[in-house]
Amino acid sequence: MDYQTVEHESFLMVAAHRKSRRLVYLCGFVASLTSILLGYDVGVMSVARKYVDMQLSLTSVQSEVIMGSLNLVAALGGLIAGKTADRFGRNRAIALACLIFLTGSACMTLAWNFRVLLVGRIITGLGVGCGFVIAPVYIAEITPPEIRGLMVSLTDVCINVGIVLGSVVGFFCELTIADDDAKWRVMLGLGTIPPVIILSFLRCLPESPRWLLLQDRVPEARHVLKRIVGHEQEAERELVAIEEAIQMERDVTTDWSEVLCPRHRAILLPVLMGLALGFFQQSSGSEAAVYYSPQILAEAGMSSTAHQSLGNIAICLCKFAGEIVAMLSMDRVGRKPLFVSSALGSGFFLVLAGASFQYSLPPSLLMTSLCLFMAFFSVGMGAITFVVASEIFPLPVRGKAMALAVFVNRLLSGIVALTFLSLVDAVTYANTFYLFAVISFISTIFYAGFLPETMGKTLEEISILFEKESAEHEAHVRHAEEAMQRRLAASDELRRGPAPISPLRAFGGEGAASASIAGQYQSTEHGKINEAHA
């Protein structure tokens, strides 16, 4: 009887664990769908741009503004997203991001001139930026540690799912819709479907237990933890651990000055590394390769619109495949090897893309170069950038530093999309790709020489690593300062000159030799005095 009771309780525990794990997967999947909003826009605009330019009679500069404005505004949206999520909750913040995106998509779909379309892009950018920051935070707070890395990486995977989805939708709209004006409006209008799906599922998802505890809503937090953990005792332990972490964060809360002007090297180093990670990811030109791939292929000699769209889909699929490889290997191979191989491979195939234009090589070679460039980019720089950024930031500044890194990343993304056509007009396609290649090769130095390996380390161990390096640096600086002070003191003594030395002391004082020398000295002095009298 006792054995049967134990077996029955074990069965119930396993069933509860599976049920809770399914809920966690659902939470992560639905929250990750917010990243599809960004990816869909990137993929569909690469196809819709030429029809938008034609129907609204946009200039080259206006086209660049339309393409780049979303990411520039998304950078600002990322900065305000944290405050919104802290005040209204993670679920409501995600819902707000979806509503903003819906409004922007409707505005773009119904746009009748450049100004209305730009307003729609700006509104959409705010929604994209909010979702880009809030979703990883919600996933990290709702998932257990053993699957947290996998679940957080879903956001990057969903960006690429959105890119592929957008390019495929654009391709089929080109094939099935005859009216050019209707083509791009349908492409952009279909972008309202993902946020509607997210909103319909949000009502079933629990709020973040961490946010509930921040609001002192302990009973609700306990109920949510029971649902996502599946065991009451484990939920209580998790509740206590979260409360302790919240108290520690309150004790070490810092303001923006500690992020923008760090006084401690243990904070300065990871903040600079996080900003460098965000910078190098977008300055390699990946956003331009996706946004403008149909036009790039057309300039290389691929005249068929269908072939251009298929080439765009192939590029997006290669980018997606690289993300999958990175997700499966980052915890086995390590972060640094993937970063280094990603930067070197990206640089090599960017050089090949530039050579394809410079020497008028076949368009198929250019398309292959772009496909392999995106694959290598996604293996490291594309997929792991924000995984490492979230690992290296110290706890007191983690939220603000992450928001700053996202801001720099989206800002660079917008600048690249905004200036690509102008840069091409100024220096040609070949030199533009060579420029991106140089930046990729330079990033290899940063990844190989300065970025620490974080695989297999806890967040506390990574923080200790920076604190230890900071302590060693401070000790080295102290030794250098002490050595400099000793050299300055010695230099001052040399400038003052040696003290006068008497002949007696110089030659030993007493003794016959000393007396003789002293006598000679006195005789010489008397002789000089007599000469003076004479």
The third-level CATH topology of the largest domain is Growth Hormone, Chain: A
Beta-strand segment tally: 0
- Structural class by helix and strand composition: mainly alpha
CATH architecture classification of the largest domain: Up-down Bundle
- Order of secondary-structure elements: HHHHHHHHHHHHHHHHHHHHH
Strand content: under 5%
Low-pLDDT parts are 503-526, 528-534
Radius of gyration: 33 Å
Shape call? globular
Helix content: over 70%
**Biggest sheet features:** none
Q: Number of folding domains?
A: 2
CATH class annotation of the largest domain: Mainly Alpha
Average pLDDT rating: 80
Distance between the termini: 136 Å
CATH superfamily caption of the largest domain: MFS general substrate transporter like domains
Annotation field: number of helices: 21
Brief summary:
The chain is mainly alpha-helical and 534 residues long. The chain has helices spanning 2-56, 60-88, 90-109, 114-142, 145-176, 180-189, 193-202, 209-214, 218-229, 232-251, 257-260, 265-283, 286-291, 293-299, 305-333, 335-358, 363-392, 398-449, 459-496, 503-506, 512-533.
Q: Can you characterise this structure?
A:
The chain has 534 residues and is mainly alpha-helical. The protein has two domains: 11-205, Growth Hormone, Chain: A (Up-down Bundle), CATH 1.20.1250.20; 262-483, Growth Hormone, Chain: A (Up-down Bundle), CATH 1.20.1250.20. The chain contains 21 helices and no strands. The protein has helices at 2-56, 60-88, 90-109, 114-142, 145-176, 180-189, 193-202, 209-214, 218-229, 232-251, 257-260, 265-283, 286-291, 293-299, 305-333, 335-358, 363-392, 398-449, 459-496, 503-506, 512-533. The protein is globular, with a radius of gyration of 33 Å. The model is unreliable at 503-526 and 528-534 (pLDDT under 50). It is a multi-pass membrane protein. This is Hexose transporter 1. Homodimer.
